Structure of Chromosome partition protein Smc:
Amino acid sequence: MYLKKIEIKGFKSFPNKTEILFEKGITSIVGPNGSGKSNISDAIRWALGEQSIKSLRGDKLEDVIFAGSENKKAMSFCEVSLTIDNTEKILDIDYSEVTIKRVGYKSGESEFYINNKPCRLKDIKELLLDTGIGKEGYSIIEQGKIDEILSSNPSNRRKIFEEAAGISKYRYKKEEGEKNLKITKDNLDRITDIYYEIEKQIQPLEIQKEKAIKYINLKEELKVLEINSYLNEIQQVDVQLKELIDHKTILSDQLSDLESKKCNEEENISKTEQTLLDIDSKINEQNEIIYDTKSKIDNKASKISLLEEKIKNIESNKSRQKEELKVLNENIKRNIDNLEKMKLKDKDLTKTLERLNDQKTSIDNTIKEYIQDLKEKENKIEEFKDKIIYVLEEKNKNNAKLSSLKTTLENINERREDVKNEIKDINEKIKNSTAKLSECKTKENEYKAKLIQLNIQKDKYNKEYELVKDNLENIKESINETNLKINEYSSKLNIFYEMERQYEGFNKGVKEVLKNKNLSGILGAVAQVVKVETEYETAIEIALGSSLQNIITQDEQNAKQAIEYLKRNNLGRVTFLPLSIISSKKISDSELPNINGVLAIASDVVEYDSKFKGIIQYLLGRIIIAKDIDSAIQIARAMNFKYKVVTLDGQVLNAGGSLTGGSVKQSSNLLSRKRLINEFENKIKDLKEELTLKKDEKIKKENYLKQIDNMINEIDKDIKDTEKHILFIESEIYKLNEEFSNLKNTLLRLEKEQNGLKENYTYTNEMIKDVISKIEYAQIQSEDIQRKINDINNEKLQKENLYKRDINIYNELNLQIVKLTENIKSIKSEIKRLEDEKIEIEKSIKNKESDIKLSEDTKHNLSEELILIKVEKEELQEKLQDINSRLKNYKLQKESISVKLKNHKENVKGLDSQILDLKDSIYKLDSKINKLELSQDSYFNKLWNEYEMAYHEALKIKKDDIIADKRKIDTIKKEIKNLGNVNIDSIKEYEAVKQRYDLYKEQKNDLESSIHSIEALIKDMEQNMKIEFKKNFEKLNESFKVVFKKLFGGGYGELRLLDNNNILESDIEIIAKPPGKNLKNINLLSGGEKALTAIAILFSILLNKPTPFCILDEIEAPLDDANIYRYAQFLRELSTKTQFVTITHRRGTMEASDYIYGVSMQEKGISKLISLKIEQAQSFIDEEVI
C-alpha cells in the first residue's frame, strides 16, 4: 500500500488543478521559502480530516481557499484528493485503489468522499484506524509535530505513542462505547419516567374495560328483544294494509274503465285534429308546388337565353381556330428544310475530325521516345552529381578539421599560459582560506554560549506556561461539567414540560376536558392550581387522592357543558368543582388538640390563588397532618375520630377510626411535577451564572497564557536567530573546509593538466599534415567528374530542342480538334432542337383540328338542349292550372271535419266529471294506507337508527320462541343506566396502554442489559489496551535505544513510563544523552539535538509499525550536514517498507531521493509544480530565491 497521487484544486496557492504522482521509495519536494511547498503537506492533512485551521496556518476555513491574485480571481471552494494503492487490502475496503477526497466551501462547510461516494469524517477515520495515517498518527510529521513529541504536555506526546502501539483503534472504540453508554443511560432515564406513568394508568383502565364488556353484553341482549318487538308490530300493520289495498284495487278498476272511454274519445279528437292537420299540410303543399312551378318556368326562360348566347360564341371561336391552323402548317414545312441542311453539315465535319486524330496519335508516339531518352540522360547526370557532392563533402570535412586542429593548437598554447597563472593564484587562495577558517571558529564558540543562556530562560517560562495551562484545562473541564449539568437538567425539564403539555398522569376524561379550549369556564385541575413544599407532598397527595384530578369551573353551567361534552363523545366521567356553589368549612386552630405530633391543617400547607380558597378548604380544610402514625392515633382519639388524619409518610386514619396504610410507590406524581419544574429552572439559571463566571476566568487565564506564549515565542525567535547564526557559521566553516580541499585538488589537477597540454601540442601538429594531403586528392577527383557531366548535358540539349518542336505541333493539332469537336456538338444540338420543334408543331396542329371538331359538336348539343327546354316550359304552365283546381277541393274538406271535432270534445268533458269522483274516493284510501306505512316506516327507522339494520337483515335474527316482554326490556335498560358512563374505548385503550406498557418494560430491560454489556465491553477494551500498549512500548523502547545510538553516532536514549500502575494514562519520559553530554532534561538539548531525538523516535516507530506512507515537512532543517547524511542513510533503509514524501531544502535529503519535484511561484500567490533531476534541485532553489 502506498500513496499514488494527490490532486489539488483551489487549495491555498494552488488555484489550478495540480496532479502530483508518487512512486514507492523517496520523493522530495523542494523550493524556496514562500513558494508554497508546505501547502502540499497541509493539503494532505486537510484531506485526511484536519479540523483545526490554525494548525494549517489559517484562522478560518476560507483561509485555505485560494484568495485570488493580480491575474486570477478568488475561488469559492477548494478540493484535495488522495489516491492510495490498496492492492494488498490493508484498508478494510473492497477496492484495489482508494481515493479520499475533501471539498471545502467559503461558508465553512466541508464534504468528504471515499471513491467519489459521500461519507462522514468518521468513516475516513475508521477506514484509516491502526495504519498510522491521519491527523493523530505519525504519517505526517512537520516541525510542530517534532515539538509535540518532545512536548512537556503528556497528552500531546501520548497520541503518537498510542498510535504506534496500535491501541488508538481501541481508544477510539472505547470513546465511542462511552458515548453510547451515556446516550443509553439518558434513554433509560426517559423510558423509566414514561414506564412509571403508564403503570399508573393500567388498573383504572382494566376496571373501565370490564364495565364496558358488561355494557356490550347487555346491549346485545336488549338488541334481540327490541328487534323482535319491532318485527311483530310491522307484521300487524301488514294485515291492515292488505285490506285497504284490496278495496283500493276495486275502485282503481272502475276508474280504469272510465279513463279507457275517455282515452277513446281523446283518440278520436286526436285523429280528427290530425286529419285537419293533414289537410292543412296538403293545402300548404299545393301552395308550395304552385310557387315551385312558377320558379321553374322562370328558370327555363333564363336557360333559353343563356344557350342562345353560347351558340353565338362558338361560331366566333371556330373562325379564329381555322386561321391558327393555317399558320402552323406553314411553320412545319420551313422546319423540315432547315433540318436536312444541318444533317449534311454534321457529316462533313465528322470526317475532318477523324483525319486530325490520326495525325495527333503519330506525333504523340514520337514525343514519348524523346521523354524516355531525356530521362536516361538526367539519371546519369544525377549519378555524377552524387559522386562530386561526396568528394566535395569529404574535402569540406577535411578543411573544417584542418581549421579545428589549427584552433586547437592555438588553444593549447593559450591554455599552457593560463594554467601557469592559475597555479600561482591557487597558492595565494590557500593562504587566505586558512586565515578565514580560524576567525569563523572563534565566532561559533561565542554564539553557542549565548544559545545555552537562552534555553535556560525558555525552560523557566515553559514551566510557568505548563502550570497556567494545567489550571486552564481544569477550568475548561469544569466548564464542560457545568455544560453537561445544564444539558442534563434541561433534558429532564423538557420531559416534565412534555408531561405537562400532554397532561400525563391525568385520566382520559380529565385530559380531554383540559385539552378542549372550546369549553368555557375551565380553570384547571386541582393538581394544577396548588403548590406544596416537598415535606408535605406525600401527605397532601394521599389526602386529596383522586380529587387531584377534579376540575375547577367558574360555575355549574360550565360544569354542565363539560359533562355534556364527555357524555356526547363517550369520554368517561370527571368530577367538577364549580366556584359558584362549593362551600367550605375549615377546622379552627382552637379545635386542634395540644399534642406534640400535630403539624398543621392540610389546607394551610398548600399555596394557591385566593379565588380557590373555598375549593381548597372544601377538599383539605377538615384534614389534619400528623408527624407519624402514633401521633395520628393520639390526635384522632383526642378529637373523637371526627376528622381524617394523614401522616407525612402517607398513612391515613379515617374519620370513624379506620386506618389505611402501607408503602407508597415513588414516581413522578402530579403534585411534585410543578415543584420539580421550578427547581430545575432555578438550577439551570444558577448553573448558567456559574458558567459565565468560569468563562470569564477562562478568558483571563487564556490571556495570561498568551502573554507567556509571546515571551516564549520571543525567546524562540532569539534561539532561532542564534541557531541560524551558528548554522550560518557552521556552514561557512564547512564551506571554507570544502574550499580548502577544493583548492588543493585544483592545484593537483592543474599540474597534471600542464603535462597533458605538452603531449597534445605534438600530436595535433602530426594530424594537420595528414589532413592537407587528403584535401589535395579530393580536388583532382571533383574536376574529372565535372568534365563527364558537361558532355552529357550537350547531348541532352539537342534532344530537348527536337522535343519542343514536336510538342508545338501536337498542341496545334489538339487545338484544331477541340474547335472542330465544339462545332459538331453545336450542329448536333441544333438538329436536336429542330426535331423537337417539329414534334411540338405537329402536336399543335392535331390539337387545333381537335378543338374545331369539339366546337362543332358543342354547338349541335346546345341547339338540341334549347329545343328540349322550350318544350319543358310549356308543360310546366299546363301543370300549374291543375294544381290550382286541387287546392280548392282541400279547403272544402277542412270545413266538414271541423264540425266532427267539436262533438268529440263535448263527450270528453262528461267523462272527466265521473273520473274526478272516483279519484277522491281512492285518495281517502291512500291517506289511510300512508298512515299505516308511516307507522311501519317508524319501526323500520328504529331498526336502522338504533341498530343500523334493514328489515330483511332483522328477519334473519327473528326468534319465534322469544316473547317481546316490555318489562324485560325496561329491566335491561335500567341495568344499562345503572352502569353509568361507560367508556367503550377503554377496551381498546387498555389493550393499547397494556401493549405500550409491555413495550416500554421490554425497552427498559433491553437498555439495562445494554448498559451492562457496554460497561463490560469498555472494561475488556481497557484491559486489551494495557496489554497491547505495554508489549509494543517495550519493543519501541528497544528500537529507540538502537536508532538513537546510530543517528547520534553513540550516546544513550530511552523511553520510560512514569506510572506502571496506570499504563493508559501514565506520562512518558524521553531520556536523550548525546555522545559526550550528560543532560538531565531534554529541554537543555540544542535545536538540532532535539530534532534528531524526535526523528529517532519517529524512525523507531516506523521500524516497529511501518505506516504505508509518511510525509516529512522540513523536520531535518535544524540538523547539520553530518547528521543530515546519517538521517538520509536511515531514510533509505526505511524506504523499503514505507514510502516517503519529504519537503526539504537540504542537499543531503535530495541526494537520497528517487524522485524530485520543484515548487516555484513565478506569478505572485500561485504555486507551480515542475519535475527535476537531482543535479538541478539545488540550483533551482538558489535561482528561485534570486
Q: What stands out?
A: The chain has 19 helices and 24 strands. The two ends are 40 Å apart (CA to CA). The mean pLDDT is 81. The first helix runs from residue 38 to 47.
